Amino acid sequence: MIVEPKVRSNICINAHPEGCAKETLxxxxxxxxxxxxxxxxxxxxxxxxPKTVLVLGCSTGYGLASRxxxxxxxxxxxxxxxxxxxxxxxKCGTPGFYNNMAFDKAAKDAGLKSITLNGDAYSNEVxxxxxxxxxxxxxxVDLVVYSLASPVRTDPADGVMYKSxxxxxxxxxxxxxxxxxxxxxxxxxxxxANEKExxxxxxxxxxxxxxLWIDAxxxxxxxxxxVCTVAYSYIGPKQSxxxxxxxxxxxxxxxxxxxxxxxxxxxKASLNGSAYVSENKGLVTRSSAVIPVISxxxxxLFKVMKEMNLHEGCxxxxxxxxxxxxYCGADGEMTTVPVDEENRIRVDDWELRDDxxxxxxxxxxxxxxxxxxxxxxxAGYKHDFLAANGFDIEGVDYTKDVARFDVx
Length: 408
Fold this sequence. Notes:
Layout: E1 7-8, E2 11-12, H1 17-38, E3 52-56, H2 61-72, E4 77-82, H3 95-109, E5 114-118, H4 124-137, E6 141-146, E7 152-154, E8 161-163, E9 173-179, E10 184-190, H5 195-205, H6 208-219, E11 223-233, H7 248-271, E12 274-279, H8 294-307, H9 314-326, E13 345-346, H10 354-366, H11 372-375, H12 378-387
Helix pairs in contact: 1-2, 1-3, 2-3, 2-9, 5-7, 6-7, 8-10
C-alpha cells in the first residue's frame, strides 16, 4: 500500500511508519551531536545528571524529545507511558506507536534500559504498572516529566469522563487561521465556554493528575533524593491570550502552575526535591492547527525566528531545557534552576523577545493571501505539520509500498 497523508479539517489522520521512525532517529542523532558539542557526561562517564527518568506522555512532541534527551545525552534509563493505537498488518497505528518502537530499538542498541507502557496514564492501573516496573529495575526515579495532552480524562476516583475544550471565556473570539491544504487564510471563531466546560477543561488539562502521580510514586518509595518533576505549558503572544492564556486552556495551565508550586513545597520537605512548569515555545500540534489565530501566528513566527537564527523545534527546545535550565551545574549537576518570578522555567524566552514579537505583529498585519509566502513560513509550517505524522521526511521513499503496519 502506498501511504499518503490524509488531512481532514487541518488534522492529519494517518501516519507513515518509516517516516516516523526516521524522524525519531534524526532527533536522536541531534542529541548525540549536542552531547559531544557540550561535553555532557553520562553517569558512567562521571556525570551527575539523571540516571532514571519517567516520561508521562512519551510518544510525540516535547515528551518524546525529553525522553530522547534523557537517554541519549545523559545516558539515563527511561520508562515511558503513552496511549497509542497499535499498527496491524493492514491498518496504520498512531504516530506515537512508531516513534516508541524506534526509540526502544535505538535505546536497546545503545545499551540503555527502555520500558514503554501503552495505556491510559490517567488510570490507577497504569500507575501501578509503572511502580512495578520501577521496582523491577531496582532503582528510584530522578526526574518525572509530565507531558500528557488529551482531550479527555476519566477520573479514577469516580469513573466519570471529562472533556476539555479550547474556547474563550466571557466573550466570543475570532481571527484568521492558516488552511494547511491550500496555504490560504481563513476566518475562524469560537463561542465562549460555559461554566461546566471551564471546570471540565481544568479537570482534564490542569494539575490534578500530576499531583496523583507524584503522590503515588512518593507513597511507593519510587522517587530518589533530590528528585525533580517538570510539566510543560505555553503562554504565547498577547494576541492569542483571549483564546489561550485567558481561555479554558489557560485556566487549566494556571491550575497546573499552582500545582507545581504545591508539589515544589511538598518535594522539598520530603526529598529535597523540586517541581517546575516549563513554559515552552509554540509549535505545530494537532490542537494548534485548528485554534483561531494560532496557526497563522506560528507560520509568521517561524519566518521571523528563522531569519534571526532563533528557531527551535521540539528536540532543540528540550535539549536546551535539560542542559541550560535543569542540569546546568558542573558535570550536569542540578543546582539552582533559573526561573521567573512565578517559579516557572522559561524556554519561550526567544519566542517572546520584544524584537521577535514586534516583527511578527508587523508582518501579520501586512499579510494577505496574495503575499502570504513573503511574511509566513508556509513550507516550514507544512513540513512540521506533516513530519509529526511521518510525512515529508528526508530520505523516505513515499512511492514505496508499505507491506504491513505493525512493524518498522
